[in-house]
Amino acid sequence: MKIPLLDIKAQMNPIRDEIISAVTDVIDSTQYIMGKKVKELEESIAQYCGAKNAVGVSSGTDALLIALMALDIGKDDIVITTPYSFFATAGVIARLGAKPVFVDIDPVSYNIDPLKLERWFKAHPPDILNKVKAIIPVHLYGQCADMKPIMEIANDYNIPVIEDAAQAIGAEYVLNSEIKRAGSMGLIGCFSFFPSKNLGGIGDGGMIVTSDNELAEKLKILRNHGAEPKYYHKIIGGNFRLDAIQAAVLLVKLKYLDNWHEARRKNADRYNEMFNNAKIPNLKTPIAIYKGAAKHYHIYNQYVIKAPQRNDLRAFLDKNDIAAEVYYPVPFHLQECFSYLGYKKGDFPFSEGAADDTLALPVYPEITEDMQKYVVDKIKEFYAKT
Ligand SMILES: *Cc1c(COP(=O)(O)O)cnc(C)c1O
């Protein structure tokens, strides 16, 4: 048996004709940049996420980048985020000349720890706090960060929150007894349509949501070189536009998204049960933190276990045709490009631990029970031998 980490073909097959027809319509329309399909997708995503506005952009990375640009973040500013995420989260901060400051994760959810965030604010003097221009929590693996305390801290210090919801479109969190979707809790939410995300295009794409109308206008202007009206520039933006062809494909796929989320959740539950029965010492399955509370909703973009001897296990699975991936092997503070920030090994022990111990297993919607059983059996076999 050969088990990939993600099977895009299996997802595409049942909707292939619909997708090709949508793509053909775009080709025949000759409207390839922005246009009707992009507008339609923006309206659909705004509604899906529970935000007033959505702005289609060229990627999740660019979504984060223009979000920061819209808040005029640059030199001498500080942006606080997690050390444990995809590179883009921190990369965009540094690209604008601002300083990324990291706060360690909670070791169970892998998301930024609100207690440590609060401790950071309490430990710094006003002249440093005045430089903090945004907080970027990441909803890693498809589970919302603990937004209630994060928003309380942000409100106390009057700092805007940009949610990196690239892995979490449709994830839910109960904020002050209201069910909120990822991206709609902070001032701005950023999404990616990279093909491996739960809602993936046939190329790059991204989206920004915000319920602040004025900010939405600024984001739209920044997306198109800062031009308003055309050829007149009060601000400097760039070409961050979403292609019509991606919008058309994503509009088709959006109809199936909730079913795919449900299938991933069912697969995650099935793994949990299989691992429970396998009783492998020290292997830990992921915990949907808010499972007890009604309506918190994890979309399992990744199903990530904590596994001793992770690297050997991964090599063993690879030999047995099972793809597993490490998200992420090096936390930001230990990346060479961020050495100028002055962090050292040991500064964020939970992020470092996660980078050493975690392994993402295939959890895509179309994986079968037999395939999952094979994965768990092989993992059991590995630990029986060692
Ligand atoms: C995928 C991802 C991004 C970047 O999205 P792209 O569309 O690949 O640019 C940013 N942050 C996180 C957490 C991601 O997973």
Walk me through what this model shows.
The structure is a single chain. The chain has 386 residues and is of the alpha/beta class. It has two domains: 240 residues, Aspartate Aminotransferase, domain 2 (3-Layer(aba) Sandwich); 129 residues, Aspartate Aminotransferase, domain 1. Helices cover 41% and strands 12% of the residues. The chain is built from 14 helices and eleven strands. Bound molecules: pyridoxal-5'-phosphate. The site of pyridoxal-5'-phosphate has 15 residues, from helix 4 and helix 5.
Layout of strands and helices, then pairs:
Layout (H helix, E strand, L loop, with lengths): L7 H5 L3 H14 L6 H14 L3 E5 L2 H11 L7 E4 L6 H8 L3 E4 L11 H10 L2 H4 L2 E5 L10 H11 L4 E3 L7 E4 L2 E4 L6 E5 L13 E5 L2 H11 L20 H11 L2 H22 L24 E4 L3 H10 L29 H9 E4 L7 H17 L1
Parallel strand pairs: 2-3, 2-4, 5-8
Antiparallel strand pairs: 1-9, 6-7, 8-9, 10-11
Bound molecules: pyridoxal-5'-phosphate.
Pyridoxal-5'-phosphate binds next to α4 and α5.
Which structural class should the secondary elements be placed in?
Answer: alpha/beta
* Small ligands present: pyridoxal-5'-phosphate
Radius of gyration: 21 Å
Q: Class of the largest domain in CATH?
A: Alpha Beta
SSE string: HHHEHEHEHHEHEEEEEHHHEHHEH
Order of strands across the widest beta sheet?
1-9-8-5
Low-confidence stretches: none
Count every beta strand, where a strand is a DSSP E run of 2 or more residues. Answer: 11
Characterize the overall form: globular
Q: If you consult CATH, what is the topology of the largest domain?
A: Aspartate Aminotransferase, domain 2
Q: Give the percentage of residues in beta strands.
A: 5-15%
What is the count of structural domains?
2
Helix content: 40-55%
Q: Average pLDDT across residues?
A: 96
What summary fits the major beta sheet? Answer: 4 strands, mixed
